Amino acid sequence: MSLYNPHENKVIISTYAVYDENKAWQWNNLLDKQVEGGAGTFTVQWDDSQTIAPDQPPNTGPVPTATEQEQPTDQAQTAGNSSSSHATDSPAGPEIGPNDEVNHVRRSTRVSVLPRRLNDYELDVDHLMLTSDEEPRNYNEAKTNKEWVKAMRAEIDSIEKNNTWKLVHPPTDVKPIGLRWLFKIKRNPNGSIIRYKARLVAKGYVQEQGIDFDEVFAPVARLETIRLLIALAAAKGWKIHHLDVKTAFLYGELKEEVYVSQPEGFEKRGEERKIYKLAKALYGLRQSPRAWNLKLDDTLKNMGFQRCLQENAVYKKVSNGDFIIIAVYVDDLFVTGTSLEFINQFKRRMASQFEMSDLGELTCYLGIEVTQDTDCVKVKQECFAKKILKVAGMQDCNPTQCPIEPGLKLTKAADEPEVEATHYRKLVGCLRYLVHTRPDLAYSVGVVSRYMQSPRESHARAIKQILRYLRGTTSFGIKYERCKDLKLLGYSDSSHNVDIDDGRSTTGHVFYLGNSPITWCSQKQDTVALSSCEAEFMAATAAACQAIWLRELLAELTGMKKQKVLIRIDNKSAIALSKNPVFHGRSKHIHTRYHFIRERVENEQVMVEHVSGDKQRADPLTKALGHTRFAEMRSLLGVQELPSTQTFRG
């Protein structure tokens, strides 16, 4: 260490020093004096008085008391082998003078040996990204790994093979859009790696509507439509196949002139000042999804497919008594139909138009695990559920029997301490996606979703209750069985005045195709209901809207005659109000839009029927139930345990 003596204008270099912390430095006196010898003139003195010869053993005497370090300051830090970690709260000991002998702390002469359990670890940098679950955040982190370099080269080759861009001199007054690399490890539901995927994307957030693009909307298949198709395929015994279009957005043709910079790490040598003019769409551009959708729509129509009126992302083709149904979610194609040969013919034609990945029979779709057996199709999100528990740090928590305790009253309480809002919203978002295969979670997740703006401790405890329930039910899902009777059946229910903050009721409904649930809803109503009859009436109207859509979509997909949809309600007053304008005094204030169900009943598109409360399958979608009651209703709802039996492709 180096110590400066301002009185003698010397710098002393020593391996050991003792500080007198009981004396204060006289800063005022120092500032009043000029240092003799001028700035930068000083003498360096080496202090070898404490040097230990290499062959001399270290002093093994007692350790000096470190009570002087009780109140460390900016200029008082223990040097050498003495550490501030030895400081205690005991009273100050005797003062150590400059001439007093101070003993060193003994240093161990034992040779350190690496534990045997660490001998099998590979710690070289080349394998760091391969053994880590984290994807690289930028090009600099990815360029040192051969797998990511290979993925980036494949992306560039796809772009150039498709004639997506052309290198040109930058036009006057044109600022090119920047590019960046995104990296993702694609995995099977069991966690095994499928491939390393690098995507070159444009920074489309700098584009302005009306200047750089016009329309951006591109339809995708709703997950409730996917569940309907799965139920239909299971009932008919059809197989479901999965196709993926590689670099799908690169096939979309642009109408606007778009310029982008050269990608990082792949600049053309000697032409670094040039930029690319896009002929086709690139990931990240605002208009890219629509451009790809228009290209795919035109291709499918040329093959003889017709777009469904009720679902613009679903296509159907009929030929010689066989038909095939396609559901599109960006670049993922859900394919099912009556004939395997018809499906294979479609695959060959698609492969001639685009670069495709034939993933065979569907096993995983948008994170949903699918198991196809001879007599049923099972869907669940076990892997995703375990991931949620890991993110929340509750993978080892004690499970509970219901997601929300009966009688729990949550409010927007301002007197409770706030919790970290970002983490709360992240968990709620994950749970909401899990509801796509778990209707038993719909009500509890809907309740905690109301407090994302300013979550409090009571709301966080409610989420922990849901996660504890999830811990014991990660393998639960829905089984779609084979059946002959393809009838739509709905259940509608409501809970009156359950929200303490605004007094609104909760709507719940679930629809079945055969014996399998295909759509469900748990949602707070838009207005305050003055009675349970009014709340049930508004819930029935919402169910009727869903019933009409399902009725039209099913008829369009199958060619069957449009059927009357039965909706079961456990409130007789609401049933009477749905059929006739009775109870005028109690219903005259209800908005006209809620009388939609009465018109549909009169037109014989919907039929309402009474069901007892103990058989009301929508009951767990509207309120918290006790453990025994909840388990019974969960079974009626169609949620059951689905043990893992499938081996996923790696």
From TrEMBL:
<feature type="domain" description="Reverse transcriptase Ty1/copia-type">
    <location>
        <begin position="162"/>
        <end position="405"/>
    </location>
</feature>
<feature type="region of interest" description="Disordered">
    <location>
        <begin position="49"/>
        <end position="108"/>
    </location>
</feature>
<dbReference type="InterPro" id="IPR043502">
    <property type="entry name" value="DNA/RNA_pol_sf"/>
</dbReference>
<feature type="compositionally biased region" description="Polar residues">
    <location>
        <begin position="66"/>
        <end position="88"/>
    </location>
</feature>
<dbReference type="InterPro" id="IPR013103">
    <property type="entry name" value="RVT_2"/>
</dbReference>
<protein>
    <recommendedName>
        <fullName>Reverse transcriptase Ty1/copia-type domain-containing protein</fullName>
    </recommendedName>
</protein>
<dbReference type="Pfam" id="PF07727">
    <property type="entry name" value="RVT_2"/>
</dbReference>
